[in-house]
Amino acid sequence: MLILCGSWLNKKGFYEAEIEDVRFYQSLSQIREVEPISFVIFSYDLSGEILDFKLQSTDLPSVIVIKIRKFKKINKKKGHYNLLPYSMSLKDSEFIAGIQKIRNLIEEGTVYQINLTNRFDFEFKGNPVNLFFRFYKNQPVPYGFFLNFGDFFVVSGSMELFLEKLGERIVSKPIKGTSKSLRFLQNSHKDKAENLMITDMMRNDIGRIAQIGSVKVTELFKITKYRTLYQMHSTVEGITNKSIIDIIKETFPPASVTGAPKRKAVEMIDILEPHARSYYCGCGGLVRNETDFTLSVLIRTAVGKGNRLSYYAGCGIVWNSVPERELEELYLKVKAFYKR
């Protein structure tokens, strides 16, 4: 089962896909092309292959390609489910210690920024589609989807655009900066510095696949209101005729969920985080035709297997990060999914 919120299709409501075929891959080298219309997921596990070093990984497929015949509009379903929290991969004290380690790495000049994440584990009872609809109701977003293969399922409430290609125009809208206060975010030099670094990384990433001279920043520090928080994003554009797989090879993993410089940040993340990220911090989205696609960054994402479910959240850490504020931001990102 695959359900998308209507904004993927420039419509309102929810749409279920009539699935023609599903293919699983463990490597990008196994994929020749992605046929339209397809929904694709690229796991964060691919970061090791693309950046050429060994990372923690899961036993789930690294790439999912779902070929779709058509979509039909459906009504939201209501039903009960139960989430019982039982563990976190990092205790609050360990998350704060991780922030201090990152600050030390920044002081040494090893990195400029790292996105530190945590995994929240739950016992789950009920139909996961009910969880998806409740999650979306708590915080409507442009890139929500629900995917269920029986053996595992993915629930995503992402509001971040990784890459969208329409014709030869490619756009990215990296998010950095989160707060429950608009005024705080508007006046936060820390969040703007963090956003600027990631925007510059996306300029560099898109520059590797774009025509020379075509890359530009068209928005800087734009703030969007969501039901439980405010987010800051910038917009980077370029011109390219590359295929989706060639583009992924040059731009993945998303800069906003790794850090700067990207390769060293990913290497340090693998040391600092005791969990593999799985589909979280990867990307997923719709391939419409031979040239056009939309990929979200898989933030605000949960992965379930059987009666176990893991939800992930993270924060961008820079030198002047205040650990207690970062911890507050972490739980703010969890709020729409699960209220403690």
TrEMBL record:
It comes from the Bacteria. It holds the Pfam family Chorismate_bind. InterPro entries: ADC_synthase, Anth_synth_I-like, Chorismate_C. GO terms for biological process: L-tryptophan biosynthetic process. One of its GO terms (molecular function) is 4-amino-4-deoxychorismate synthase activity. Residues 93-333 form the Chorismate-utilising enzyme C-terminal domain. This is p-aminobenzoate synthetase. It comes from Thermodesulfovibrio yellowstonii (strain ATCC 51303 / DSM 11347 / YP87).
